[in-house]
Write a structure and sequence with these properties.
Two copies of one chain form a homodimer. Chain A has 596 residues and is an alpha+beta fold. Among the domains of chain A are: 139 residues, Acyl-CoA dehydrogenase/oxidase, N-terminal domain (Butyryl-Coa Dehydrogenase, subunit A, domain 1), CATH 1.10.540; 127 residues, Butyryl-CoA Dehydrogenase, subunit A, domain 2, CATH 2.40.110.20; 148 residues. Chain A contains 20 helices and twelve strands. In chain A, the strands form three sheets. A five-stranded mixed beta barrel of chain A has the order 4-5-12-7-6. Chain A has a two-stranded antiparallel sheet with strand order 1-2. At the A-B interface, helix 9, helix 10, helix 11, helix 12 and helix 13 of A face helix 9, helix 10, helix 11, helix 12 and helix 13 of B. Chains A, B: This is Acyl-CoA dehydrogenase.
């Protein structure tokens, strides 16, 4: 088996850190407690370990291919997607009345990690379909929802997000695709969209494109963008498929990674105009898209955790099997499996601690999302929404940068074999690189964190989280164990470094934006480390308590050891990041432009 | 032009930091002063910019291919290699009496950077040939030298290093290839060697394989390994080529990067035995190989600098051309080239500062090598040798890890386009990954640094360098400028962190080796940052002096700005590394082996 879903680790984090028992008290989630989660995760593991994971390297070897306007996906993908949909996984978090399972995001997040660890190229198809469903749920008419969502949940159709154009990458104000109103209320759409994930493929009967475009006469910039639904095949009143719409794939990209996932260039309206329907109101497209993008950003963060865990598992296996050199402590007289060598351990522990920290952060974020949407109390909803929104750029930005570090370490553990493609370790590095780019690069996430999430409220939201962290430090310090006392110190040092950075960003944000934004990515990294480390501290206490109660000694000791490592080797990076942010802003922009 | 050799930057570092004027006073190097260096670098730049660099992406698209025991290299490589050899570049540093130019390593190092920046896959052929020449110069008989070296310098033949076997990667004690003595004094060689760079190709008439093997009855482990020369075609007494030897390429690897460079599996003796000749004495093979490996390790470090500089240049170009989003400081009302955005500047400055710091460290190391070999005073030679040997693991380990960071940032600057292979940014990341693995992984370099270079002398050598750095701090602090005063503080903080780590490693090295080696790679990274940062501080002073003298204002201001950035954003990482090394050793090995 090439992937083993970390069900036990997930359930530990869901119970001890994300408090699934509280989620199960929210209206609508009464059935979604620990036992349901355990059953769902076990089923999910089975499908992804047995069916989806074995197709990962196949997809790299035999990527999607383009011929005559059609895309053929990797052999096996179509059947796996059928099984995925038939298992009900596409509808896991969506409303029951449209065919979904209406489970909380907390459970969905764990399942998302599994399918992405199994095969990130494959998982992009359901991920984008989720995004399209989310956008339609936000803004579409009841008729549109009834038309498009059930077939997507059934896996007969899939969804896409069409934002990027050649001249408009991260900057959607430059979108030029135009929509011309027709007498029947529909629109004709003309333009070119690039980087459209699963924009064309052979795994479903129809593809539901959600497209940003401008109606003639709309305001300039982002306030003149509307959202349209534009199916590949027109849909008849009875739900059957009609004529082919005028949206065509003209090429797919040759990429560093996620090769099985077709990245399409879509041409709208080359033969008279692609028929599209307005979703929601005119000129509010960006707002709707942001709802979907926040969901997608969370999902991409989970992809980072997923790829990193897969890379970790592979590296552990190799380090156990590969015999090379005697241990430095003289404990063996002949060559040992390399897992005995301290630097290999350091690499594996870094990978493990980073994965566990980011997973904990994401699951805690998912639980906050659930409370933000389902809690009966408005004030509690608002608090959870603010917390979730603060976490999204960290989950997306930090977890994906983390996945690059981890996947690179994974190759390194394999030594020379890691550089040979057939080994499979390099694929994770190649795949991981896109995660820090799409759905908003790390810099875009950091801009969001600096601007909307920190500067706007003068750092109040960030400081409120820091106060919670300080409380956790107090709990840690009050315990008897050396591990918890040491961790309290590490977390305190990291938190104080973070507070310095928050103060700096909040102070500079408006008057001297160049200084604030010069440290935006280091600030994002620092924030991610502190928040993930905080969760590791909570995990440490939960594990100590379980250990004292006699539960699962080996598992709990591993949790403690991993938390300690996180404190010593990840949280320890925070002070340096603080220095770079607070003391280093001026030198970022000091070099004259001509001198580069 | 896709690559512009940084001749001016190199000459600045050679003069102001590596003191080429002193190198030109060494016996034998009287002609090798600044003007010679300038002329050689200009010529070298011409060839590499015009001929070698354009083949880089070609080599990635059309890698070396294997068919029926033969390897066909990328179209254009053979002709480029002919031009390279005809220009005298293969013999640049080798003795004049064997056809070389006998120039110092200082000049050679700069030329090595250029050819590797132009095309690292191509450059591996001359790099390995240099290594083979070096090994023969160290240990071969005069007859062997006369037979093999001149044709290699002429580029008619090339050289390889055959160390690795499937069961013996980093651990050469496990080498199993055997050599059977023959009545005529030759040996018959039997075994399998893997990862042999340019082990088979079509760019030269003959290939001179240097092979580690065991003579029957030799001691076990590394003390029973001998070095043999084993040509692809036997060499007649008149130097003409004779029969095909029994060494055959059976496959080449499918790799993440450096795809144009054929990585061969070589089979020795499948048809009766490959004829080889002992080089030097029996059982001293590893010792000879270490001479060659030190040269190769230095060379691989320079490859890291080279790939990083190429990635930097490409990213700068893209950042100037790509228009996207308005500047955060409101300085422009429409979308600007992304080089105006602070985070893009931060990425470019990180790339630039890392490249300049590592280049300075490598060139200073090369000058020490020259003094260690050519200085008339034995004490001075010994001091320089010790300094050079301390630097080799930093140049190799730190510069290559640095190249991974820089190449990854290079992709990131390109956003989504960076993930598209045709853009070319991803190739540098794929190519860079091998640099931290071959010729000894970063962990192997770190073991060398911890064991032979720090623990063995109780940290005395490292502390002596720290004392020199402290003197530089004093010079910086004594100057009037804010830049130099601030840099003195940054360097001092970093040096003190380094000293803590040196003390820890030296204290733990013998009694508690697991604790010392748990921090080996962080210690290597910390050492590399401090030593490179020290050179940046010296560059800052040299640039301030030149500026005061009215020289090249823009160039010198750029040197100052880059040094400042290095202090704020690279040296600032040192304290966190110190904490991980000194406070985090135990948690590296705390997790039970079964718990991974």
């Amino acid at each position: 088996m090439t992937y083993r879903a970390p069900v036990k680790d997930m359930l530990f984090a869901m119970k001890a850190l994300a408090n699934i028992d509280a989620v199960a008290q929210l209206p609508g989630f009464e059935e979604a407690g620990h036992d349901t989660a355990a059953a769902v995760l076990e089923e999910c593991a089975k499908l992804n370990e047995g069916v989806v994971a074995p197709l990962n390297w196949e997809g790299d070897k035999y990527p999607s291919s383009f011929h005559d306007g059609k895309v053929s996906t990797t052999p096996g993908f179509k059947d796996a997607f059928r099984q995925y949909a038939e298992g009900g996984w596409q509808g896991l978090q969506h409303p029951a009345e449209l065919g979904g399972q209406a489970l909380p995001k907390l459970i969905h997040a764990a399942c998302t990690e599994m399918v992405n660890a199994a095969n990130v190229s494959f998982a992009l198809c359901p991920l984008l379909t989720d995004g399209a469903i989310e956008a339609l749920l936000t803004a579409a008419s009841d008729e549109q929802k009834a038309t498009y969502i059930p077939p997507m949940i059934e896996g007969r159709w899939t969804g896409t997000m069409n934002l990027t154009e050649p001249q408009a990458g991260s900057d959607l104000s430059q979108v030029r695709t135009r929509a011309e109103p027709q007498p029947d209320g529909s629109y004709k759409i003309f333009g070119t969209k690039i980087f459209i994930t699963y924009g064309e493929h052979d795994m479903a009967e129809n593809i539901v494109h959600l497209v940003l475009a401008r109606v003639a006469g709309a305001p300039e910039g982002v306030k003149g963008i509307s959202l349209f639904v534009c199916p590949k095949f027109m849909v008849n009143a009875d739900g059957s498929l009609g004529a082919r719409n005028d949206v065509h794939c003209v090429s797919i990209e040759h990429k560093l990674g996620i090769k099985a996932s077709p990245t399409a260039v879509l041409q709208y309206g080359d033969h008279g105009g692609a028929i599209g329907y307005l979703v929601g109101q005119e000129n509010r497209g960006l707002e709707y898209m942001f709802v979907m993008m926040n969901a997608a950003r969370f999902g991409v963060g989970v992809q980072g955790i997923a790829v990193a865990d897969r890379a970790y598992q592979k590296a552990v296996q190799y380090a156990r099997d590969r015999v090379q050199s005697r241990p430095v402590d003289g404990s063996m007289t002949s060559a040992a499996p390399i897992i005995h060598h301290p630097d290999v351990r350091r690499m594996l522990m870094t990978m493990r601690a980073q994965v566990e920290g980011c997973r904990a952060m994401a699951l805690v974020g998912a639980a906050a999302y659930d409370a933000a949407h389902a809690h009966p109390d408005a004030e509690t909803r608002a608090q959870n929404q603010a917390f979730y929104e603060f976490l999204v750029p960290l989950i997306k930005g930090y977890s994906t940068e983390m996945s690059l570090e981890v996947a690179s370490l994974g190759v390194q553990v394999h030594g020379g074999m890691g550089f040979i493609e057939e080994t499979g370790a390099a694929q994770y590095l190649r795949d991981a690189k896109i995660l820090a780019i799409y759905e908003g690069t790390t810099a875009i996430q950091a801009n969001d964190l600096v601007g909307r999430k920190t500067s706007r409220d003068g750092g109040a939201g960030a400081r409120a989280i820091a106060a919670q962290i300080e409380a956790t430090e107090g709990e840690l310090a009050a315990r008897g164990s050396a591990a918890s006392k040491t961790f309290a110190q590490r977390l305190g040092t990291a938190r104080r470094a973070w507070l310095d950075a928050i103060d700096f960003i909040a102070a500079q944000g408006k008057g001297n934006p160049n200084a604030a934004y010069a440290g935006s990515v280091p600030y994002l990294m620092l924030s991610g480390m502190v928040v993930a480390g905080w969760q590791m501290g909570r995990a440490l206490m939960a594990a100590e308590d379980a250990l004292a109660a006699g539960d699962e000694a080996e598992f709990m000791q591993a949790k403690i050891a991993t938390a300690r490592f996180h404190g010593d080797h990840v949280l320890s990076r925070c002070t340096s990041l603080r220095d770079a942010i607070v003391d280093g802003a001026d030198s970022v922009t000091a070099l004259a432009l001509d001198a580069f």
